[in-house]
Specification:
Helix content: over 70%
Shape: globular
Structural class: mainly alpha
Distance between the termini: 24 Å
Order of helices and strands: HHHHHHHHHHHHHHHHHHHHH
Length: 470
Amino acid sequence: MNTKPQLNRALGLSTAILLVISSMIGSGVFKKIAPMSATLMDNNLILLAWVLAGVVSMFGVFSYSGLASLTEEGGGQFEYFRIIYGKFFAFLFGWTCFFVIQSASISSIAFVFSESVNNLFNFKNPTEGWKEVSIFNYIFPFQNSGVKIFAILAIVILTIINYFGVKKGGLLNDIFSYTKIGGILFLIVVGFLLGGDAGADDAATNPIIKPEDFNLISAMFTAMLMAFWAYDGWINLAYIGGEVKNPKKNIPIAIIGGTAIVMIIYVVVNYVYMRVMPINNFIEINNAGNQIAAAEVAREILPGIGFTIISILIMICTFGATNASLMSSPRIYHRMATQKLFFKSFGKVHPKYHTPHISLFFQMVWCSVLVISGTFDQLTDMLIFASFIFYGAGALGLIIMKRKGKITAKVFGYPYVPAIFVLFCICLTINNVITAPELSLTGLSFFLIGIPVYFYLKKQYANNKNETTE
């Protein structure tokens, strides 16, 4: 009889859907219109990029909805990869999540949250005199210290809340999800009612760009990569699958429904942006480098209070997204440890609150280190590159397991949807290696560092087993 504390299945379908939405809606929906405008220079193409990125994301969602039938355990992709490809590849995924994919994402979103608060309250920098101090002229730990301290404080507070139970973290997620959806809907309604028709003016003065004017395919691909940052996060629910009620049924419904809702919101809100302001304004915002496109739109339609309203909305969205990622990610490391693929302490569950408290703690520490270092922006540039390698591996795994008869659940569009998604992931990865070789090699190095760690842990667990049997 197993007397060890176990994770509780406390999250229902509605909370699961809201967790997907909250994980996805962070800062991207407020900012990406500017660089996408500079890249595509046409309203119709920008909306097309959002739609195509959403469709590709949905292809991934449909593929992973099939993988959800493999297990009722938590850990998401890690657990899927362990079943499909074995322990080695699964470990490399989890290792990369801890050091790059999930931790850098949490740190980045928390930093954006802190910056949005700073826009309203203007933090002091207690280490201003040391801001030029650096490590290898690359890491500047004392720069923007006020923003960094507040970001770390947010991470610590959210960790404490999630330490005391998944239901508390889920309740907080529900509150912020409803608030952020309401805030974005308010922006959409106000934009329709008070905004002009700048898009029509653009169409009259700047007709759709002709293919011979620039490389349309390359530009569209670049713009879609920007949109993918905003769409990313739908997989987070699978990580916490061990605490979702009836996961084989609810996880597919939640990730499909949540992603579809977010896709509609993104397309509509970007359409509203372009009704309010002409595309040249967004290009200027992108060139300025220190402005948030949605804030400038709100300032246009609600002079005086628009910037404040959007700053508060971004605070809510980024705080909620930080909580959603922070809550789900430790379940990967917990599951890894229970399978003897990570440090043993990460597998412990709190005897009273039934949370992976050790995983939460070490995640908090590493995320705080990334915030202090300021290197998470460089790391997040690798997120989409690294994420799509593993996304593609999951969709390929679906095909493998369907052919073996291990997955009998019906998957929308099978086998064409997962096959197209795999091909897209391969193309995206190759494109990144060609266009950003240094970034790709850096991401690959994090991946490869995990190889000796895997064999070290394997040896440690083997030695412990031998000691206990002697």
